[in-house]
Design brief:
Layout lengths: L2 H6 L4 E4 L6 E4 L6 E4 L6 E5 L3 H18 L6 E5 L2 E5 L1 H10 L3 H30 L7 H11 L5 H15 L4 E4 L1 H19 L2 H8 L12 H27 L3 E5 L2 E5 L1 H10 L3 H30 L6 H14 L5 H12 L6 E5 L1 H19 L14
Length: about 375
């Protein structure tokens, strides 16, 4: 077995789980096999044949589709004899020109810039591994890509766009442009590239076969994790009140302005017969944020009280909060698409409400809270730590 092959799938390996700090001996893995921690069921490492080659190809394909999604029409809106078309850059420009600078930054970063940086990083990392080159900056690039992955939301923006099309279908005719189909390809290949990327295996390759070794948890770190998580959860609870009470957007038709709250939008969609869209918005904008806050509060309280029961159940709930939290951004992207597309003066226009930024802040803060919470506290009595 060559050195490169042994680095990809080592015959003998011991990995320390970064979620419960258990040392696990890993056997040789076959194609599409993964090794999980026997204590907390966290995926430690997986193996796929030709994963590096596939990662490089998918990342380059996604970048190509991203470039193709920029210059052409994304959506075209026709109503009352007027027509308005946007591409992705002009959509963000419309938000800036109408003084919705914060919404423009959030949309541009989460849907284009950050996913693009992630793909460039993945393409660079995979190319370096294919060439068996480890320049001095590669580990920093690897850490940078890992940090950006949760904030790359191209697929969520795509779902938000589809929801917005259904919401405005009764108001006017909407035509999908070439950029939309390119963006679908961009989202699909981005997802495929991320699925091929195993941070543990890549870090081992960077360290010449040495597995990652998370530092043992200390009392000071545990106390800081608990206190910061409480602070973030309290902040998100405070912001969630105006996010639901204030309008998330305003619709102006022939000079008459109508405010729309999150719940009001769900009720309106349900009454119009758009039941699937109403359910999606309800789950993404109400159920998920509330569930995430409640679950994290329960987890933080249980570790603060050093509870030792239901450890596997609590770990599963923690992973659930990590996986679903970012999908609450659907409603924010719906507002961004509608505001960018529907700007026809007094005839028909849509404007973002105060709740849009408040709700966006709730999503981001709860995501940071999930990252701040140290899952090892579920399995360790933190007051007995060194």
């Amino acid at each position: 077995m060559s050195l490169a092959t042994s680095m990809e799938n080592p015959e003998q390996l011991t990995i320390v789980c970064d979620q419960c700090h258990t040392s696990v001996s890993i056997p040789t893995l076959a194609h599409r096999q993964r090794a999980t921690c026997p204590r907390c069921a966290h995926t430690l490492i997986f193996f796929k044949n030709n994963a590096t080659e596939k990662l490089h190809a998918y990342a380059l394909s996604a970048l190509l589709f991203l470039l193709l999604s920029l210059p052409f029409n994304f959506l075209t809106f026709k109503a009352s004899g007027q027509k308005h078309s946007i591409d992705l850059p002009s959509g963000i420009t419309v938000l800036i020109e109408n003084d919705y600078f914060s919404l423009a930054i959030i949309t541009g970063l989460a849907t284009v810039l950050l996913p693009g940086l992630v793909l460039i990083g993945l393409a660079w990392l995979s190319l370096a591994q294919l060439k068996q080159q480890r320049p001095f900056y590669l580990f920093r690039l690897f850490s940078f890509v890992k940090a950006l992955l949760p904030w790359s939301m191209a697929e969520i923006f795509l779902i938000g766009t589809l929801v917005s099309l259904i919401k405005i279908n009764e108001l006017a005719d909407v035509t999908i442009g070439l950029s939309f189909f390119a963006f679908v390809g961009f989202s699909a290949f981005t997802t495929l590239a991320i699925m091929q990327f195993d941070p543990t295996r890549y870090e081992m390759w960077l360290k010449q076969g040495k597995p990652p070794t998370p530092k043992p948890l200390t009392v000071a770190q545990a106390d800081a994790s608990i206190q910061r998580t409480w602070a973030l959860l309290i902040t998100s609870c405070i912001l969630y009140i105006p996010a639901n009470l204030l309008p998330i957007m305003y619709t102006e038709i022939f000079g008459q302005e109508t405010p729309n709250t999150i719940i009001g939008g769900v009720i309106s969609l349900w009454e119009s017969g758009s039941y699937p869209v109403a359910i999606i918005i309800l789950i993404a904008s109400v159920v998920v944020p509330v569930a995430k806050i409640l679950i994290l509060a329960w987890l933080n309280y249980s570790v603060q009280r050093q509870r030792t029961n239901s450890q596997q159940l609590r770990t599963r709930y923690y992973r659930l909060t990590e996986g679903i939290g970012r999908w609450s951004m659907i409603d924010v992207f719906v507002v961004a698409v509608l505001v960018s597309l529907i700007q026809m003066g007094n005839t028909l226009s849509i404007y973002p409400g105060q709740a849009a930024l408040a709700f966006c802040a709730v999503v981001f803060i709860t995501m940071i809270a999930a990252m701040t919470f140290d899952s090892r506290l579920i399995w360790q009595q933190w007051k007995q730590l060194p």
